[in-house]
Design a protein that fits this description.
80 residues; mainly alpha
């Protein structure tokens, strides 16, 4: 089970708490990958690339959502 945040909303150590909650799963992924034959360096580089790809995806999704919101507003205003 993953430990939830200590309380709702922002607080000083929230990101540290998130890291601590994630640590067992992270170590399990690294161990499984290592057992499958991947080196630690390959695992860490791949994880960094996955995080970067996810960040890019989130940014692109936000742009698309903004464009859709503008298009919807224009349609409601009767402008193509």
């Amino acid at each position: 089970m993953i430990t939830p945040p200590r309380r709702q909303g922002e607080y000083a150590d929230r990101e540290i708490d998130c890291q601590e909650a994630m640590e067992p799963g992270f170590q399990a992924i690294v161990e499984c990958m290592s057992d499958a034959g991947w080196s630690r360096g390959e695992i860490m580089r791949s994880l960094r690339r996955l995080v970067a790809a996810d960040n890019m995806t989130q940014k692109e999704n936000a742009k698309v959502e903004a464009q859709l919101a503008i298009a919807r507003a224009m349609m409601r205003a009767g402008r193509p």
